[in-house]
Amino acid sequence: MNTTRNLWPLGIIGAFVAIFIGLATVVVIAATHRDSLVNADYYEQELKFQDQIDSAARAEKSGAKLVFDAAAGLMTITVPATQLAQNFAGTLTLDRPSDATLDRQFPLAPQTDGTQTLNISKLTAGLWLARVKWNAGGESYFIEQKIKI
């Protein structure tokens, strides 16, 4: 008498083992994966976000602007000349989202007409985030613009 063995129980057990191994692999990968944040102090920046929105609205209302000429590799920042006499101080930050080691910061020192031009043609090609922050007359101002070099 020749009896055949039923393989269904082994197939079901094998399927459960494969599912368990797959889930365990996903859990291990998720637990060991580290995200590198663009900014290390992202939580503090999030708390100050409303101040940034108000600063951007003030900058837009004041007529300040940031213009990038890709062909010449020049960035021109224009602020109202009247703000220069009101305890003016500011910075221009160029952030590279894909590589934080390439980030650059420049002091904001406009001429008497309120313009400052920077040659940024030597920066690595790609997407950059230009952020201009300044204070004048006790008020803060902010402009943010994505540029592609």
Give a written overview of the molecule.
There is one protein chain. This protein is of the alpha+beta class and 149 residues long. The chain folds into 2 domains: 7-36; 42-148, Macroglobulin (MG2) domain (Immunoglobulin-like, Sandwich). The protein is 30% helix and 31% strand. It contains 3 helices and 7 strands. It has helices at 8-32, 42-47, 49-62; strands at 65-69, 74-78, 89-95, 104-107, 115-119, 127-136, 139-148. The strands form 2 sheets. A 4-stranded antiparallel β-sheet has the order 4-3-6-7. A 3-stranded antiparallel β-sheet has the order 1-2-5, with no helix packed on it. Strand 3 and strand 4 (104-107) form a beta hairpin.
Q: Within the CATH hierarchy, at the fold level, what is the topology of the largest domain?
A: Immunoglobulin-like
- The geometry reads as elongated
CATH class of the largest domain: Mainly Beta
Q: Strand order, main sheet: write it out.
A: 4-3-6-7
Number of helices: 3
What percent of the residues sit in helical stretches (DSSP H or I)? Answer: 25-40%
Compressed to H and E, one letter per element, the order equals HHHEEEEEEE
What proportion strand?
Answer: 25-35%
Number of domains: 2
Instruction: Label the structural class.
Output: alpha+beta
Euclidean distance between termini CA atoms: 81 Å
By CATH, the superfamily of the largest domain comes out as: Macroglobulin (MG2) domain
